[in-house]
Specification:
Largest sheet: 2 strands, antiparallel
Number of helices: 4
Number of domains: 2
Strand content: under 5%
Shape: globular
Helix content: 55-70%
Distance between the termini: 40 Å
């Protein structure tokens, strides 16, 4: 078991979180199980955002952190570096054409990477 008292504050990088999760919950036996848990946390985040639409409160921040931790754990279980995948995906996104109503939401119009990439 990891002795959290020996971990420097502010050093919760991806490998440290992966180790903590593996040692706390055991090695994940299914990416789908981690994905389902992330989905539950996402649903809780949406409920909190309904109460705090600007997302300024600590409850939203904590739930968003839960979602991020689980998404990073899911990438770890699937065997890839999520940061590298985001970088690669952004290289595709920048080549796409986008439409937006101007409210911060939008969708791509197909193009580079195909309609569902």
């Amino acid at each position: 078991m990891i002795d959290l008292r020996s971990w420097p504050i502010g050093k919760w990088n991806r490998p440290a979180i992966d180790r903590w999760a593996d040692e706390t919950f055991g090695r994940a036996t299914s990416a789908a199980l981690i994905g389902a848990r992330a989905n539950k946390e996402w649903a809780e985040l949406l409920k909190r955002l309904a109460r705090d639409p600007n997302g300024n409160g600590p409850a939203v921040q904590q739930k968003m952190a839960d979602v991020a931790i689980l998404v990073f754990r899911l990438a770890h279980v699937c065997g890839f570096d999520l940061i590298a995948a985001v970088q690669k995906k952004m290289e595709l996104n920048i080549l796409r054409q986008w439409t937006s109503p101007g409210d911060g939401d939008g969708r791509h119009l197909g193009g580079a990477g195909g309609p569902h990439a």
